[in-house]
Amino acid sequence: MEMNNQPQAEHRWLHRLVGEWEGEGEMPAAPGEAPNTWRSLQSVRKIGELWIQCEARIEMPDGGADIMQITLGYDTAQGHYVGVFAGSMMSNMWIYRGKVEADGRTLTLDTEGPDFGSGQTRKFQDIVELIDDDHHELRSRMLGDDGQWQPVMTVRYRRTG
Length: 161
Hints:
The chain is mainly beta. It has one helix at residues 9-15, and strands at residues 19-27, 36-47, 51-59, 65-75, 80-87, 94-100, 106-114, 121-132, 135-143, 149-159. The chain has a ten-stranded antiparallel beta barrel with strand order 1-2-3-4-5-6-7-8-9-10.
């Protein structure tokens, strides 16, 4: 099998995320309570021309901090985006498989992991939306027992470098 190691349009889509970013995150809270918020500093770099690696430092209002790393690429043989997510706040690794939606600016990454309330394995999606060259959004959602997607968190980023 011949390997295609030349960057494709899908790889160049990921390159739009390369740079330094600052963001504000929000997680829904129980009804009647204010959402949990935090600040995020994100650094995205290329690994050659076929992969990107994102490291985000999450700074909580209480002074706590977490580190998250995401590696993403496009597998030309399989015809979809692939990647992994690991965070200092959890022991499981999330395996991604996804595609850019028809709008050309939204990457939907499917994965499975633990429901933080019950520990039960659930379907999740992490969604990266390119708003413009200087803004992007990361949204996570979980598929509930009722078949509806429930928001887990959102981070809105703006380019700083």
